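Would you kindly consider the sequence and fold I have copied below?
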Amino acid sequence: MEALYFSPMLLGVNLILAVAIAATALWFMARPLPGPAYWMTGAWLLVSGVLLFFLFVLTRNPVVNVVANTLQLTGEAVLLLGIFRFLGRPLPWWIVPGSAGLIILVNTHYWLTSGNSDFLMMIYSLIAGLLPLQAVYVLMCVREEPATRPARLLVGICLALYSLVTLARAWFSGQGWLQAQPYVQPFESFSYLLPYNFAIPALVMGFIGMVLMSMQRILAASRANAEQARQNVLRFERLLNVSSAGIAVIKDGHLTDANVQLEALTGRSREHLLGLSVEELFPRRARGNLPMLLHQADGSLVDIDIRRQDGSSFPGEVRIIPLNEEGPGDVVVELRDISHRRELEEELK
């Protein structure tokens, strides 16, 4: 245990555990962004495999060894699937059963035939080193979504470094197998400790890049939404001012927006209209049905007198509709001057 404590293995496990916790937080905060769920699942599978391998070092149980190696490779594969999912590319699902099935066969054969541990490590490292190459290619070659390109390059470089170090481990293990070198404990093996010194830090940096990719996408989406909202406001203001009727937006019984036609109808400036109680638009004798009209907001036309700023009034017509379709809330009040129509009606009478 003392040798394990002073080896980089313990630090490597803590780093992977930190990545798993951070990936869980990222998934929780970035839902429903595609990708983080895979990163979280892959990181926890990787942590489980590494912890089981520690248990194998203590117990030398073959089943624990097979399960530990399988979980580690499965975790790496799922982690990489998250990159394809994030970028909207078809998922190469075959890498999960392919890598897990191959290591199970080789690992089981190793225990049944008392095989060479360097050979087992070589096969494991070859699989682990080749897995990221597809993701590296996609990260480097994708042209869409320029906002995430800097982070994508960071992830691609880190995964390429991880792959290079892991393949170097496979080469050193292969050399040990060919030279029939005697077995040493994992925390004393140069080839086994190589990923803990270089590959795992690269994987941690790669995950930081994944977090940056997520944040950049969220930020880009927020900017797009803000621009869309600004365009919607501009369109709404144009519609208000194009209409021949006076229009006001009412929230909690007070005006929050008004067009220039309403200013002309009431003789009040926009600054005076904003924040004004809706009741002030009508003379006292016409306010009796106003609460019911605001509550119903069914779009029906209602004849009602409209009050000017100087206290005088004129015959008007009002239509009240909800601003939002999902339920009660802000309403839009449309007012028209029907004095000319009243005069014609009187002449007809």
User: Anything to note?
Assistant: Residues 235-348 form a domain with the Beta-Lactamase fold (CATH 3.30.450.20). The radius of gyration is 35 Å. The chain has a mean pLDDT of 87. The longest strand covers residues 313-322.
